[in-house]
DNA sequence: ACCTGAACACCGTTCAAGT
DNA sequence: ACCTGAACACCGTTCAAGT
């Protein structure tokens, strides 16, 4: 009887923090940051606005929680049992983050915000820890740990954010036509720039159209790893 | 008489696009992106909401225009008559952008957005052109122009964005006390992390507290330039 | 403890109307 | 051409009230 009473009390809680965050991520994925409104969320969850504030707090806190959830999942996916070379581990972590931002375009802006606003939060600290351990494993002298790790992390976040747009346009279009069209349009716009003012951008318009996102991302990482190797 | 008539007609235009953008930048500097509301702007300019839309368009377009104005000024400041070494020019451009984001913290998020949303806009193209010319001058083979330039640009934007928070806290506090306190708080939080889960972050907490933003920013650039030098 | 939903103080944007 | 400002359709957040 006590059990029954407890159950009926428990059954009243139909919402959980996790459920709310999951629905928020769906809204963000579908329509970007603007699509996450408290009202859209309550409608999807068939509840009232107060329930959101009871379980997670303000909209900003919900945005933080969504970011933490997605990044934690992306980092957790990289727990290789065999211990690979540090360079491979860095590349793999970078590609995990690359993939996460490609799937969740809203992360690009949100990560910038989190790094600035919450430097001791789980997102900032989680990414630093993962990359930093590999920097240490590379044999970088301790005095350069912070600097070398920061450089890698900054590059990864910056690079990955710009590639989002390309990835986004690739989605929803059959056979990558959307992506090709988008890159073609950008390349054409670059080609049409004033020849005196923008000779360099005009010169690389072709490379920009033909480039492979992941390949170029990895070549940037390779370049930085080369620089780090010289610190040893 | 015709002059007088013309003058009276002209005098009716009391607002200009430039004026609106300048006021918008002031609001953004004072209170961040949230402080730029159409109503706050019309109040400061003693006008109606319609006037904003007549001269510049929507709030998003105003945000774009503000970003373009600040970045154009930052890039224009770097027109050295003597032609310095490419490495120096890259460092100088990077520091110009560093300074611009330090003064206008809202740029951090806004630049990410612009690069993704308007890859052929003046901001994206202007930064690429400035950095790219120096990459070319470094003797990098043409096949690597786009890749090397992208790596530098991504690092600069990523790194500069994270340092904003530190710079911001330095402002308004006498004798840099705010910045030191902020860094001390972050370092303390890093130090308090779980020893098993975050050994690396705990190990670099001290370096993080002592680090000099500009120095570290430049050492990241030096690291990438080292990597680029090996492409030659 | 958990949730509802009306109410409040804001938003961005439009557009008929004025000069 | 340039500008006004009421009106509209939204926001995020709070909080008394319910169970």
UniProtKB/TrEMBL annotation, chains A, B:
Residues 14-74 form the HTH tetR-type domain. Gene3D superfamilies: Homeodomain-like, Tetracycline Repressor, domain 2. Transmembrane segments: none annotated. Keywords: DNA-binding, Transcription, Transcription regulation. InterPro entries: Homeodomain-like_sf (IPR009057), HTH-type_TetR-like_transc_reg (IPR050109), HTH_TetR (IPR001647), Repressor_TetR_C (IPR004111), Tet_transcr_reg_TetR-rel_C_sf (IPR036271). Pfam families: TetR_C_1, TetR_N. Residues 37-56 bind DNA. This is TetR/AcrR family transcriptional regulator C-terminal domain-containing protein. It comes from Microbispora hainanensis.
């Amino acid at each position: 009887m006590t059990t029954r009473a407890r159950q009926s009390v428990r059954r009243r809680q139909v919402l959980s923090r996790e459920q709310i965050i999951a629905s928020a991520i769906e809204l963000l994925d579908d329509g970007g940051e603007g699509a996450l409104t408290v009202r859209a969320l309550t409608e999807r969850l068939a509840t009232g606005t107060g329930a959101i504030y009871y379980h997670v707090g303000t909209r900003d806190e919900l945005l933080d929680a969504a970011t933490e959830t997605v990044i934690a999942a992306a980092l957790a996916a990289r727990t290789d049992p065999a211990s690979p070379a540090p360079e491979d581990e860095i590349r793999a972590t970078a590609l995990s983050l690359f993939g996460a931002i490609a799937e969740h375009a809203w992360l690009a802006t949100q990560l910038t915000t989190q790094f600035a606003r919450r430097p001791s939060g789980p997102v900032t600290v989680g990414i630093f820890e993962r990359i930093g351990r590999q920097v240490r494993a590379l044999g970088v002298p301790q005095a350069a740990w912070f600097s070398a790790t920061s450089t890698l992390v900054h590059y990864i976040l910056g690079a990955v954010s710009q590639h989002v747009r390309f990835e986004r346009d690739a989605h929803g279009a059959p056979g990558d036509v959307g992506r090709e069209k988008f890159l073609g349009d950008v390349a054409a716009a670059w080609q049409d720039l004033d020849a005196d003012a923008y000779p360099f951008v005009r010169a690389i318009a072709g490379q920009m159209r033909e480039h492979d996102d992941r390949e170029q991302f990895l070549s940037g990482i390779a370049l930085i790893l080369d620089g780090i190797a010289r610190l040893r």
